[in-house]
Every structure is written in structure tokens, then in C-alpha cells.
């Protein structure tokens, strides 16, 4: 079990496409897989306006996780972060984010959430 | 986007090996990938005694998520649950859990956490 440096964590975040955002929904822990894009030191996510995630992440502290494991070899890595999340309400900022290589897997998603990355940590399991 | 039935969710949980447990760590959302085993209607996880997860999940409500996505075809599924978690302190119960086909990926993990599955939900994305 190897602890990853912040630089390694950022490189892995840049390489990954799918993560999980962790938030609080009516005082209960909630988690949702999302496609994301690392933009500088923040994570950009597309969701639908009015979705549970859009409401919960409008102005909150959330966690974000991405990983890649291989069951056969029992190896892999994970990166987690905690950070402040907000929805993007300014049309200019949304237009800038629309130029990122982030395409939603599900239709009807046109609402951006950004998560500033803080408390980054990562681990790798080797054999 | 297809909503999965409880039976489909349980079948997918039975087929998966790696999930993420979502808990609260000092009032902040936290997430950790874990290897798990579905035992009836509960999830069994191995961790180290004294770990952050062991402390936080000793008597709490947590979320659990597992998924499988294929980036190339943009298809996949996810299953999430919310439920009460507890640590296993009785030696008899720990001995019974030790007979499950659950092997830890990291050394030094001999502390069981069980999560009773409630509020099960799942989604599948097809093309």
C-alpha cells in the first residue's frame, strides 16, 4: 500500500473519466457516479438542473473519488478529495465550461457543478 | 437510462467485488473504496481496527456504491444503498464472517463492518 503524492493524484485525476461525488441528501450520505473533467485544480461535472445532485451540491462541501482496480491481480489505485462545490449560474462561465472535453453520458444534462479540490489523497496497491 | 429493480440491484451487488463506502468523518463527507461481499441483505467489509472507517462506521448510517462502466461504449450500471453500519465485536460472529469468500487486498485487516442494505437503487445506461 503506497501513499501517492499530490502530483501523482492530479495525474491520475487527469487520466480518469468516471468518478463518484459524495454529498449529503436530507442529512443522509449519498453517492452518485459522474463523468468528470479535471480543469486546473477543480473537477467539472455535468448534471441536470433540479436533480438531487444539483440541489445538494449548489453550495456545499462534498467528497469526490475515482479509482481503477483490477480484480485479477488485486492491484489498483484510488484518489479522493474533499472540497467546496457550487453550481455554475453565470452564462459566461457555463459557456467557457462547454468548451471543455466533457460530454454527458445521459441526455438532458446542461447544468455544471464545479468542485474545488482540497484535501487530496491517494493510494496505490501493488503486488 | 433504465431504473433497475431491487432484484437486479441485488444480482449486480452479488457479482461485484469492489465498492465504495461513504461516511462522515469529522462532519465532512468521506469515501473509501473497499472490497466487499454480499451476505444475504447485508454488505460485509474488512478493515483494520482503529482505521478511520472502522471508527466512523461503528454505529452510523452510511451509503454504499458499486458500479461498472465502459468508457468506450458509454454504457454501464451503478447500484447504491443507504443503511445502518456497525462493527462486529462478538468473536462468534467474526468467526462466522471469516468463512465468507472475502479476502482483504491489504494486510492487517481483520475487523469486520456490516452494512444492512436499505434504500437500494440502481441505474443502467444502454445505447
From TrEMBL, chains A, B:
<protein>
    <submittedName>
        <fullName>Pyridoxamine 5'-phosphate oxidase</fullName>
    </submittedName>
</protein>
<dbReference type="InterPro" id="IPR024747">
    <property type="entry name" value="Pyridox_Oxase-rel"/>
</dbReference>
<dbReference type="Pfam" id="PF12900">
    <property type="entry name" value="Pyridox_ox_2"/>
</dbReference>
<dbReference type="InterPro" id="IPR012349">
    <property type="entry name" value="Split_barrel_FMN-bd"/>
</dbReference>
Amino acid at each position: 500500500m503506497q501513499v501517492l503524492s499530490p502530483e501523482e493524484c492530479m495525474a491520475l485525476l487527469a487520466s480518469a473519466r468516471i468518478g463518484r461525488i459524495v454529498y449529503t441528501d436530507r442529512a443522509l450520505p449519498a453517492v452518485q457516479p459522474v463523468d468528470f473533467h479535471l480543469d486546473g485544480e477543480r473537477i467539472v461535472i455535468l448534471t441536470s438542473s433540479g436533480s438531487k445532485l444539483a440541489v445538494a451540491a449548489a453550495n456545499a462541501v462534498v467528497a469526490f473519488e475515482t479509482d481503477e482496480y483490477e480484480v485479477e491481480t488485486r492491484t489498483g489505485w484510488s484518489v479522493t478529495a474533499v472540497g467546496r462545490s457550487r453550481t455554475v449560474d453565470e452564462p459566461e462561465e457555463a459557456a467557457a465550461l462547454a468548451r471543455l472535453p466533457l460530454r454527458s453520458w445521459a441526455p438532458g444534462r446542461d447544468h455544471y457543478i464545479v468542485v474545488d479540490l482540497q484535501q487530496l489523497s491517494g493510494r496505490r496497491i501493488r503486488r
